[in-house]
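Whiteboard transcription, Tuesday session. T.W. wrote the C-alpha cells on the left side:
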C-alpha cells in the first residue's frame, strides 16, 4: 500500500504561508505514517448492509469521480463559491460514505474555503491534492471491484 501514500508537504507549506485561515490542509507528511486512503472497516460495514450491491455502487462512484472533480475545477475557474461549495460537499459525502476519508477531508477543505475569500492559487493547490488522492482511490477501488474482496 506504500504506493498509495503521497507526500503533500510542498503544497502544504505553500498553503500555510498563503492561507488567511488557520485551518491546516490535511496532508500526507511521510511514508511512515501509512495513512490509508480507504477505511476498510467502513467498506466492510457497508458490505454487511448491501452485500454484492456494494460493487456497482463503488463503480458508480468511480464513474462519476472525474466529472465531480471537473465540476469543482469549473466552479473555481468561474469563481462561483456557491457551486464550489455544492460540488465539494457532494463529493465529500460520497467519499466519506465509501470510506475514502482523506479525499473527504480534502473536499471538506474546499467546501470550507468556498465560504472564505481564499486565493484561486490556493484552491488550485487543494484541487491538485484532490486529483492525486483521486488516483489513489481509483487504484484501490478498481482492485476491490476486480477481486470482489476487501
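and on the right, the sequence the group agreed on:
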Amino acid at each position: 500500500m506504500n504506493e498509495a501514500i503521497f507526500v503533500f508537504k510542498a503544497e502544504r507549506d505553500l498553503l500555510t504561508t498563503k492561507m488567511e485561515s488557520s485551518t491546516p490542509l490535511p496532508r500526507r507528511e511521510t511514508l511512515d505514517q501509512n495513512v490509508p486512503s480507504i477505511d476498510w472497516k467502513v467498506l466492510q460495514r457497508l458490505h454487511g448492509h448491501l452485500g454484492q450491491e456494494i460493487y456497482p455502487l463503488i463503480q458508480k462512484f468511480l464513474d462519476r469521480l472525474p466529472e465531480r472533480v471537473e465540476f469543482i475545477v469549473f466552479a473555481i475557474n468561474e469563481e462561483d463559491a456557491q457551486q464550489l461549495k455544492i460540488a465539494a460537499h457532494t463529493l465529500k459525502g460520497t467519499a466519506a460514505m465509501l470510506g475514502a476519508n482523506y479525499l473527504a477531508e480534502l473536499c471538506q477543505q474546499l467546501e470550507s474555503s468556498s465560504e472564505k475569500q481564499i486565493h484561486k492559487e490556493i484552491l488550485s493547490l487543494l484541487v491538485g491534492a484532490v486529483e492525486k488522492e483521486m488516483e489513489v482511490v481509483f487504484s484501490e477501488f478498481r482492485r476491490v471491484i476486480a477481486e470482489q474482496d476487501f
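Someone added at the bottom: The radius of gyration is 15 Å.
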